[in-house]
Amino acid sequence: ARYALSSDYGVNREDFDSALAEISANEKDLAQLRRLKATGAEMTIVSVNDAEILFIDTVDNVNVEAQEKFLSALPQQERADAVGSLQKRFPEIEQLLQRADGERGLNYYDYLLICEITSAEPMSKDEYRALQDHKPVDRKTICWLLTEKEMLDRGGGALRGGRGGLGVGVYEGFADRRRDIRAGRPRLRVQRA
Question: Is the model's pLDDT at 2 over the cut of 90?
Fold first, then answer.
């Protein structure tokens, strides 16, 4: 595991090693991390306390291709179950997940589907800015970030972030739009025994 970046977040070596040992002994937690790895995520421990271990994705650029492949390879029933769960918050989710032929990248709702399946959450804008302070990421991609439902309902916008010539930006964009450079960056909370 990548202790150097965890250390930058203030995780001491003893807590890091203890967290890894706990997770290694828990097949459910390992399965969640494997699924996130299949989306191209590189999960890093950024916080350990008595209640939970917090991971965030610290890959250099969100892996659009791996996330698209993950979604396209989902078993039909698993996808249907996740869509059904999301439908409680987003009744129109089926339409928002429809793809035009040749359309690339993920919209915000595609990314919520990945989160639903992996038990992860989209990274918050504050976590994203903190990550950018520790390690420059998303120089070539745009990352969907946690967006309040009120913002989505108000005008169809979702938060996204990236790093360009002017530095780190977090801004609102259309949640239902895809481009080949858009994907998501997860965080995963693992409850401790």
Answer: no
